[in-house]
Amino acid sequence: MEFLKLDDSIKISKNILIISHVNPDGDTLGSMLALKELIYKQYKRKPEMMVISKIPKAYQFLKGVNDIKHLSQFDNSMIYDMVILVDVAALDRIFDAKIFYDKAKIKVVIDHHKTNDIKANIRIVESSASSTGEVLFKVAENHGWQFDENIAEAIYTAILTDTGGFRFDNTKELTLKIASKLVGMGANPQLIYKNCYEQKSKNFVMFQAYCVNKAEYFNNNKIASITVYKKDIEKFGGGEDFTEGLVEMVRSIETTEVAIVLKEIDKNLFKISMRSKNIDVAEICSIYNGGGHKYAAGCVIKGSAKDIIKKLTNEIQKQGI
Ligand SMILES: [Mn+2]
User: Fold this and answer.
1) Cα of 304 to ligand 1 centre, how many Å?
2) Class of domain 202-318 (CATH, top level)
3) pLDDT of residue 54
4) Distance 82 CA to ligand 1 centre (A)
5) Whole-number Å distance between alpha carbons of 31 and 50
6) What is the Å distance from ligand 1's center to 294 Cα?
7) How remote is the CA of residue 163 from the centroid of ligand 1, in Å?
8) Which site among 8, 40, 158, 230 is 20 to 30 Å from 239 CA-CA?
């Protein structure tokens, strides 16, 4: 595969597509919107933007969000000059959108997941960065691209949400320096925080309370796990995003070393989210073809919830808790 320069490649690309990952979060959406606008301002190209699943209500405030199209609205026969994946840790995170990536003349990956091994002509993957937003900021700054208030807001949102509101261990000096620059460019911390974290529905909060209530604890309360069945979410009239933040909630208990949320995708098929305080959960998730970061990772496992918890508990114990 030929390796190219990003700015030269954008210049020769007439049509560009940016793809975000399934169950979009603030990082993938903020980075996608910011990148679209940066490319537009700098090169007068209007990249298209794609989501694989519904955009959570919390991110509807971002400027340009209405220009994002769903995968189903795209013509499968289309071949793009450039396809850019933002915050996409692995190709299975973009489902059927993979065909657009495979066919692209120039493939670009911008990400911060250490497990990312997607082949591309341009790979900008920095596992030390808090978020794809942070990676993108550096890319833009290094190229001398112009920012504006909306770009600053989108990148700030990306960084804010991936650091859990500047709380997680990925919050470094540089993260805050970049955040500070973004505020200087017009990002409003209070307004963005309010939009991201204080727009929950009553049902959402009630659902999360219900889930926390039925959490199970193992190994002297060092492992906390919550199993969420589809029917639970339906009972509260919720959607995909109803489990957001749940895993951090049980991790916040003083005795918890590892928090696990098992979310039913289908009968005997669960999406696993793991958060830890010391244990390397990315290593555990990689056993099941998943990945992520040391203290925050995920995977998909077949089997009953009980068996899965048993397997994961065994793996956690191997790391010495
Ligand atoms: Mn991210």
Assistant:
1) 29
2) alpha beta
3) 93
4) 21
5) 12
6) 13
7) 9
8) 158
Distance, CA 85 to ligand 1 centroid (Å)?
12
Q: What is the pLDDT of residue 115?
A: 86
All structural domains of the chain with their residue ranges? 6-197, 202-318
Q: What CATH number has the domain spanning 6-197?
A: 3.90.1640.10
* Interval between CA 285 and ligand 1 midpoint (Å): 17
If you measure from the C-alpha of residue 219 to the centroid of ligand 1, how many angstroms do you get, rounded to a whole number? 30
Positions in the chain short of pLDDT 70: 1-3
- Report the pLDDT value the prediction gives residue 2, as an integer from 0 to 100: 60
Q: What is the pLDDT of residue 241?
A: 82
